[in-house]
Amino acid sequence: MKILNAGQIRALDAYTIKNEPISSADLMERASQAFVNWFINCFDVSKSVSIFCGKGNNGGDGLAIARLLHAKGFQVRVFVIEYTDKESDDFKQNLERLAGNLQVQSIYESHAMPELHSDQIIIDALLGSGLSRPVAGLLGDVIEHVNGATGIIISIDIASGLYVDKPNEKSDTIVKPDHTVTFQLPKLAFMMPQNAEFTGDWHVVDIGLDKRFIEETLSPYYYTDKPAGEALTKKRGKFSHKGTFGHALILAGRYGKMGAAVLSSRACLRSGAGLLTVHVPECGYEILQISLPEAMLSIDPNQRNITELPELSSYSAIGIGPGIGQEPLTVRVLDELLEQISTPLIVDADGLNILSKHPDLIDKLPEKTILSPHPKEFQRLAGDSANEFERLELARNFAKKHNVVIILKGAYTAVILTNGDVHFNSTGNAGMATGGSGDVLTGILTALLAQKYTPEDAAIFGVYQHGLAGDRAAERKTKTAMIASDIIENLGW
Ligand SMILES: NC(=O)C1=CN([C@@H]2O[C@H](COP(=O)(O)OP(=O)(O)OC[C@H]3O[C@@H](n4cnc5c(N)ncnc54)[C@H](O)[C@@H]3O)[C@@H](O)[C@H]2O)[C@@H](O)CC1
Ligand SMILES: Nc1ncnc2c1ncn2[C@@H]1O[C@H](COP(=O)(O)OP(=O)(O)O)[C@@H](O)[C@H]1O
Ligand SMILES: [K+]
Question: Which residues bind K(+) (predicted)?
Answer without folding.
Answer: 58, 124, 160
